[in-house]
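Structure ticket #2291
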Amino acid sequence: MLAKTQPEPQSLSEELGMLIGKTRLVEVVVSGGRDESEAHEVADRIACSPLVKTAIHGGDPNWGRILAAAGRSGVPFNPDHAEIWLGGMKMYGPPKGASYSIALPLDERAAHRRLLEKNIPIIVDLHNGRSSQRMWTCDFTKEYVHINASYRT
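Resolution: structure written out below.
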């Protein structure tokens, strides 16, 4: 059996989004919301964050940008209980035996290599409830920034 190299799209819009204008496809999954609207709001804030998108483009395992975007969502959650995985690597959460989250030990080179892959998962668990949401986005490329910096209306 062959391993999947691209996530399965759930809708036509997701399928089209996977085909155009990206160097990296980013899947944002937020779990632990009190309800779907909270999980959606956090996922949307992360997926639309220019700082998250540029970090992904540069292969920068900056979990702090993800946590900050989640915090800007307006959804109440305790960052001391949240967990973040980036590129399949747990980067923020409680160490063994602890009841609070911190930056976890990380092999920076391995994390950077993972973030240079074509498909990047971001998973955030708010630990507030049982609801979750998934969203797709992409990185900000230099070409994207150049085109939009030159665009005039």
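Closing remark: Helices lie at 12-19, 36-47, 50-57, 63-71, 108-114, 142-150.
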